[in-house]
Amino acid sequence: QVQLVESGGGLVQAGGSLRLSCAASGRTFSGYTMAWFRQAPGTEREFVARIFWTGGFTVYADSVKGRFTISRDNAKNTVYLQMNSLKPEDTAVYYCAAGQRITVVARTYDYWGQGTQVTVSS
Questions:
Q1: What does each C-alpha distance from 121 to 24, 27, 53, 96, 117 come to in angstroms?
Q2: Do strands 116-121 and 56-60 pair parallel, antiparallel, or not at all (unpaired)?
Q3: Minimal CA–CA distance to 85: which of 10, 15, 9?
Q4: pLDDT band for position 55 (50/70/90)?
C-alpha cells in the first residue's frame, strides 16, 4: 500500500522558516516525479514545486521561487520542502504528491498525502 506522509507544518511568524517532510513508502518511486501542492480555503489546489525522483529537474511556482527549496533523500525515501521568508499568503494545507508524469497539474499525480497545515501570521 502506497503511503505519503507529510510532517513539519505549524504556525510561524512572517519572515520565518519551516521545513516540510514527505515520507514515501509502499513501492519504489524510482522514475516518479515528487511534488508539493498547497490549498488555501476556498481556492483550488496550487502547484508549489516538483522534483524528479532520481534526476533533480526542480521546478517552482513563481510565487515561491527564491524562497522555497525542494529536495529529496533517496536513501530515506523522503522529499523535503524548505520554506524561508514565509508570508501570510503562504498559509495553506500543503500536500505531497507522486506521479509518473513530469507535470505541474494536480490531477495528473497518482498518489497524495493527507496534508499538513502551514499558518503564517503577520
A1: 30, 38, 33, 23, 13
A2: unpaired
A3: 15
A4: low
